[in-house]
Amino acid sequence: MRHPQSQELVERHNTELKKYLHIAFSDFLSQKEEDEIWNLALDLETFRVRENNRFHTVTKASANTIIISKDEQFLNTVFKNIENYYKKKTGKIKKIK
């Protein structure tokens, strides 16, 4: 059984990847020289680097920053940010006015 929340994240990521590859391939076609071959591996690596360095609104940090960090206070803050996001999303905490 799949979690709807995880499916949403996978679908969002796949949509971003499709958009990125469409733009990358369109750019390649418009600038290609004769007999030039599209370097799909390079565009996929560029996408991966871009995604891993992107600031995430839930964690308030990039994936690379989280993975590399050894700062326990920072990692605890990231964990709390994720926890708070899902609590708000599922409605398990009351909003304070």
Write up what this structure looks like.
The chain is mainly α. It has two domains: 1-54; 55-92. Helix content is 69%, strand content 0%. It has four helices and no strands. The protein is elongated and about 55 Å long. It starts with a helix and ends in a 7-residue tail after the last helix. The mean pLDDT is 86.
Topology:
Layout: H1 4-31, H2 40-53, H3 63-68, H4 72-90
Short description:
The protein is an all-alpha fold.
Main β sheet profile: none
Mean pLDDT, as a whole number? 86
The fraction of residues assigned to DSSP E strands is under 5%
**Rg:** 19 Å
- By secondary-structure content and strand pairing, the structural class works out as mainly alpha
Q: Structurally, how many domains make up the residues?
A: 2
Helix content: 55-70%
- Residue runs with pLDDT of under 50 for 5 or more positions: none
For the record, give the distance between the C-alpha atoms at the N and C termini, rounded to a whole number: 37 Å
Summarize the helix and strand pattern as letters. HHHH
Q: What global shape is seen?
A: elongated
**Could you tell me the number of beta strands?**
0
Q: Total number of helical segments?
A: 4
